[in-house]
Amino acid sequence: MKFRRAELNDSVKSLIDAPDDEDRCVGQNYLIEENVSDRRLDDVEGFLPNSKDVRTVVEHYFDASVEGSTRSHRSSTFDDDVNGLALLPNNLEPTQKIIRVERVDRHIAPTGELKFDELISSLKDRDQKRLSDLTNRMLNYPGSRPWFATLKEDVADDLSKKDWLQIIIDRLGLFHHYPYVSSPTPIFALMEYSAAEVIEQGNAQGIRRCFAIPTVLESQDSPAFMPVPNKTAHGRTVDLRERFPHQPSAREILHIRFEYSWDHVKRIKKWPGAETPEIMSARSRHLPLLRTETGRDDFGKIRQGSPS
Fold first, then answer.
1. What is the DSSP letter of 108?
2. Among residues 25, 85, 76, 78, which one has the least CA distance to residue 55?
3. Phi, psi dihedrals of residue 18, rounded to the nearest 5°
């Protein structure tokens, strides 16, 4: 992705040349992104015209245009005119299961009002009232931020394992949960819903296409995000750990903000933590895999002196 404003290209180059690993990852993501249309790039560059820092400009664009400040905000991510290059057709099988992992400890005692043991019992009993208390709290935030999600079938084997939570955190590239901090104890909920439910909520809002390929503009400068080539059917998660035997990357999609129901809560689990993964190693493993999976052997190659 090349900006028209030369100072933003210079900012990207300074990130790529930075001594900090995470800064370099972010700079690389801006440079290799192929799914941002010219129209959307024009919109981004209209924010903070006096700023020379690409992260500051994109942060303001995300806050105002992607997420917004109200639940009724129409995210630019799902605007056909602005983001048609990255929008996907609503051709997922209606019964296709989608999953997300949500951190929920702020809602649970001692910092929140709900009790962990009672929620575990509620899962077993499928207690609608108590699980609704949790999902109502989870959805109590402003804006209409798009959600990163994964197709359940890509991680079904992982979900069958005893240490499923640790594996999923790493396989989905949830690097923002590192470094591990034990207080309060991280607690996560596994959420599961269908493509049909997402489409139904999108239709109710007048959104024609409610799935998209994630781009650097939605990544909030995560070093564990990596763009995919243009015309790819979906994004790909960066696995934070090396796997033996080798596993394909999980498919990653963006969809509209989704209103959870109590029935979408499938598991709740405490996370005992783990050593922080080495992000540059994770990306180095991911890029050859991504090239193979997409048939783009040249993707992600950074020419000396880029961007220009």
1. B
2. 25
3. -70, 155
- 29 within domain boundaries: no
| Cα distance between residue 212 and residue 83, in whole Å | 9
The Cα 106–Cα 104 span in angstroms is 6
pTM, 2 dp: 0.94
In a domain, 141, yes or no: yes
Q: Point out which residues pair with 265 in neighbouring strands.
A: 191
What's the gap between Cα 274 and its chain centre?
21
Instruction: Report pLDDT for 34.
Output: 97
Tokens of 38: 């010219």
Residue-wise pLDDT for 250-300, tens only, equals 999 999 999 999 999 999 999 999 999 999 999 999 999 999 999 999 999
Tokens at 199, concatenated: 């489409």
Asked whether residue 17 is assigned to any structural domain, the reply reads no
45 located within any domain = no
292 SS3 class: helix
Give the residues of the chain that fall short of pLDDT 70. 304-308
The number of folded domains in the chain is 1
CA angle 103, 158, 246 (to 5 degrees): 120
Domain that holds residue 223: 87-294
